[in-house]
Design goal:
heterodimer, A: 189 residues, mainly alpha, two-stranded antiparallel sheet, 6 helices, B: 389 residues, alpha/beta, seven-stranded mixed sheet, six-stranded parallel sheet, 13 helices, globular
């Protein structure tokens, strides 16, 4: 028998952890950003020095919406790891934006780069914490419960011990060995 | 009093709320001595069951001592030690008289809403959705029991809380699952899911005399407990369920199949389970019915599928043509708890079975929310959590 106090360390009276809340926040952020990238890729592209890359921005928007939906589910860890991967792709794309456009666009791209860098750090820390908190059995080998038959007299004695039970008529099924019917007549067993 | 309160998806807290009071002459109040976290509580935890409201007290496996009775309660007295079935039954309506307690026609106080959704309302349930009455649950220090004369199981002094607690849900649920199969001595029974209900279904099938019981899961600790109860384990992450079941049955398929998994089937490498997951997240499908599909496919023609696992709403891509052509019988439903409990109590007393084997973790009520996470993530080989308010 295991005592809960060794398993539940922080705020055992609440099931939702701070990390869960951050993951949800990132999920909503993903949805918002994804929507913006799909609805207004032209405006975003111009601001960030990524003109002509509207299709790419729309694809990124789809990726963000997918990650956002998943992050809001009951298994957010893979979605946040997907966000980390997506962040790295975004950083690469924004770095390209630094090379083109005017001063304003380069400044905007630099600000966006710094912001995405910050978000990447939050995503990475959240993903690592979520994985640590939610991994099944936390890397331990499953315990052996082979001494828990539930039958005080053992399995052999228990097998068929309740054959005195009469199945209610509405739950009866045809017996496996029932004689076959041929032309409406019962064939001899 | 302290109680575990649902605040939203994956958000259960131990809050202080007002004590329950007698609201109807047929009510009783119990002081909860033991309760448990059920697998179907996780469906509420993950918000897959519609019509939960923030502030709802959860829990539907509980037992305790009667501390107050309404003026119309005649079968209970202060101090009685009782288990509360998760289905509330009036004992008087047509369905109750037939033994269909989970279909009680009077106990669901949100009948108009339930009629709209289900066509016809089902019984009131403790600590569950407002579609089943929105009654306060038993993961709390006290509980109001409506229709108390019908909604209780008296506990013999000889049984401990650990032995008696599961009479309220998982033991009769596993039992009814096996009874629905009408098990014959020649039957090979395959049971998907080796969680608490699966474990009880295995024991029930053994007691009812199945020739062979097969347990399908992926967690070694659960399969070790299943094997201890007399089942042949199949780890679906290590081998093909269909191939192994066909091997075990000489290519005929199991005679009876039991789904103790329900709407949250594990997302495996099977394409259908991955598609279900995506559709569930995007609200295109409410349930993940991989087990149902597998059972229909592998079951022997003319066999029975028994479904105690909870489904919440809509399932897609069910091969109903296969089911029709194979002449399969489907039996399912919430458990008619009281219908079976006199018999099961006797079997525990006689030592045929001791349901306490399934308890792997004990905790205080305050630690309950954290234990939801432990149970959900199957950490520390957790199979069943018992809480002591």
């Amino acid at each position: 028998m295991n005592n809960a106090s060794t398993l539940v360390t922080s705020r055992p009276d609440r099931s939702l952890t701070v990390t869960d809340r951050v993951a949800r926040g990132l999920g909503w952020f993903s949805l918002g950003l994804g929507l913006a990238e799909i609805v207004a890729p032209g405006r975003l592209g111009r601001a960030l020095g990524l003109e002509g890359k509207e299709t790419l921005l729309r694809a990124y928007g789809g990726r963000e919406i997918g990650a956002g939906i998943w992050a809001l589910s009951d298994t957010p860890a893979p979605a946040i790891w997907a966000r980390v991967a997506g962040d790295l792709v975004d950083l690469g794309t924004l770095a390209a934006g630094l090379r083109g456009g005017g001063d304003d666009q380069r400044r905007n791209a630099f600000i966006a780069l710094a912001a995405v860098g910050g978000i990447t750090l939050v995503d990475l820390l959240t993903a690592m914490k979520l994985s640590a908190e939610t991994s099944e059995n936390k890397g331990e080998k499953g315990r052996d419960y082979s001494d828990r038959s539930g039958f005080p007299g053992g399995v052999a004695k228990a097998r068929g011990a309740a054959r005195d039970f009469r199945t209610p008529p509405e739950y009866r099924a045809a017996p496996a060995e029932e004689p076959r019917r041929v032309s409406g007549e019962l064939e001899p067993a | 009093m302290k109680a575990l309160v649902w605040h939203g998806k994956m958000d259960i807290r131990c809050d202080t709320i007002p004590d329950p009071e007698i609201e109807d002459p047929k009510d009783a109040i119990i002081k909860v001595t033991s309760c448990a976290i059920c697998g179907s509580d996780l469906h509420l935890f993950h918000n897959y069951i519609p019509a939960m409201k923030p502030g709802d007290v959860v829990g539907h496996e509980m037992m305790g001592e009667v501390v107050e009775t309404g003026s119309a309660v005649s079968k209970l007295s202060k101090g009685d030690r009782i288990v509360i079935p998760f289905t509330i039954n009036c004992d008087e309506c047509d369905q109750c008289r037939r033994g269909n307690y989970s279909l009680c026609e009077r106990s669901n106080r949100n009948k108009p809403m339930a009629d709209k959704v289900f066509g016809h309302a089902t019984a009131g349930l403790f600590g569950y959705t407002h579609l089943t009455g929105g009654y306060q649950g038993g993961q709390a220090e006290y509980l109001r029991v409506p229709f108390a004369d019908g909604t209780h199981i008296k506990v013999p002094d000889s049984l401990t809380d650990e032995q008696a607690l599961f009479l309220g849900d998982i033991f009769p649920t596993g039992w009814q699952a096996a009874v629905q199969c009408d098990i014959q001595p020649t039957d090979i029974v395959a049971i998907w899911g080796a969680g608490p209900v699966g474990q009880m279904a295995i024991r029930s099938a053994i007691l009812l005399g199945a020739k062979q019981v097969v347990s399908i899961d992926r967690l070694p600790e659960r399969l070790s407990m299943a094997e201890a109860g007399g089942a042949i384990p199949i780890n679906f992450e290590d081998e093909s369920v269909i191939e192994r079941l066909n091997d075990l049955t000489g290519g005929k398929g199991p005679d009876k199949c039991i789904d103790c998994v329900g709407l949250e089937a594990h997302v495996s490498s099977h394409l259908d389970s991955m598609i279900d997951r995506v559709k569930q997240m995007t609200m295109l499908e409410s349930d993940r019915p991989h087990v149902l599909r597998e059972m229909i496919y592998v079951c022997r023609g003319g066999g029975v599928l028994s479904i105690p696992g909870v489904y919440g709403g809509l399932v897609d891509k069910i091969p109903f043509g296969v089911a029709m052509n194979k002449g399969l019988t489907f039996r399912m439903g919430q458990t008619h708890v009281r219908r079976w409990t006199d018999d099961l109590t006797r079997r525990i007393e006689e030592g045929q079975i001791d349901p306490s084997f399934v308890i792997t973790h004990k905790a205080s009520l305050e630690e309950g929310p954290g234990m939801y996470r432990v149970f959900e993530q199957k950490n520390d080989s957790c199979i069943k959590v018992m809480l002591r308010p």
